Amino acid sequence: MDYVKQIEQYKQENEKLKAERDFLSKENQKMKFHIIPSKSGAISGLRMKVNDLTHWLDMLKENLAMVKADLEKVTRERDAAVEQLRGTCSACDNYTPNHNEGPCRSCCYEIARDPKVEVNDNWRWNGGRR
Q: Are residues 72 and 31 both part of a single domain?
């Protein structure tokens, strides 16, 4: 009879262990399903976003370098054009339609300048406003 009781105890313990195993298996499945894929998915998603952002950043850097080069070229060309305008009174910020008024009175580009004043280069580009 002792063997029958022992077998019965083993069966009960086995049932308990099966129940615990099933519970732990379900918990494990929950963790695998909810936590692990979302973490790995989030990480791979972040990697993709970082790679995309890195690509965009590289493209923006290239575009910025091209824009800077264009700006430098246009600035040089503008400065050269302004230098060619130097002395053209209508392109000067100090220009007045009347001779010998204001800064034009002593400007070296004024054709009717007062001979009694000190001659200066008072020409300043008007920025194309006139």
A: yes
Residue 104: domain span: 89-123
Report d(CA 17, CA 117) in Å as an integer.
Answer: 113
Q: What is the pLDDT of residue 26?
A: 74
- Supply the DSSP string of 2-30, one letter for each residue: HHHHHHHHHHHHHHHHHHHHHHHHHHHHH
Which tokens belong to 3? 């063997």
Q: What is the reported pTM?
A: 0.51
| pLDDT tens readout for residues 51-72 | 788 888 899 999 999 999 999 9
Token digits of residue 30: 């929950």
- How far apart (Å, rounded) are the C-alpha atoms in residues 66 and 41? 37
Domain count, the chain: 2
